[in-house]
């Protein structure tokens, strides 16, 4: 048998074999936070009645800035995307966050955040609220 005919017959089989062996990039799932408690150990409240409303905020806090004291009537969680952030309660419970940290926020507890770093703190926060109700209450 002529060599070129052998190549024409075998080459497609070889190439398809190589393609099937090709390693595909795998989808990866990493749990950043899974909890039934706020960051200070308080149990999260049970869900309330009403139409659910999901809100996702990106909050940027300049270096040295501090949020006003506030509380959230609904369960919320966030991920600090950049910078540093310190969260404090009225009773001096404190949580220090750095880039990549996840937080299960306090519910119905007065607190505030403060950027303790030298660059903006950027946090993405997910709120599981009720339609028509505020997700944040300022003092």
UniProtKB/TrEMBL annotation:
Organism of provenance: Membranihabitans marinus
Pfam families in the record: Cupin_2
Stretches assigned to the Cupin type-2 domain: 59-127
High-level lineage: Bacteria, Pseudomonadati, Bacteroidota, Saprospiria, Saprospirales
Signal sequence, start to end: none
Gene3D superfamilies: Jelly Rolls
Protein name: Cupin domain-containing protein
């Amino acid at each position: 048998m002529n060599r070129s005919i052998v190549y024409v017959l075998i080459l497609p089989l070889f190439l398809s074999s190589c393609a099937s062996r090709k390693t595909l990039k795998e989808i990866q799932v990493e749990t950043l936070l899974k909890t039934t408690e706020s960051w200070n150990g308080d149990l999260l409240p049970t869900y309330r009645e009403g139409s659910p409303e999901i809100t996702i905020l990106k909050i940027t806090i300049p270096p040295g800035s501090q949020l006003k004291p506030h509380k959230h009537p609904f369960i919320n969680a966030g991920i600090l995307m950049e910078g540093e952030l310190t969260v404090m309660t009225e009773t001096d419970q404190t949580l220090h966050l750095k880039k990549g940290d996840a937080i299960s926020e306090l519910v119905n507890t007065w607190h505030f955040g403060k950027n303790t770093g030298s660059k903006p703190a950027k946090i993405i926060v997910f709120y599981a609220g009720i339609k028509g109700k505020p997700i944040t209450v300022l003092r």
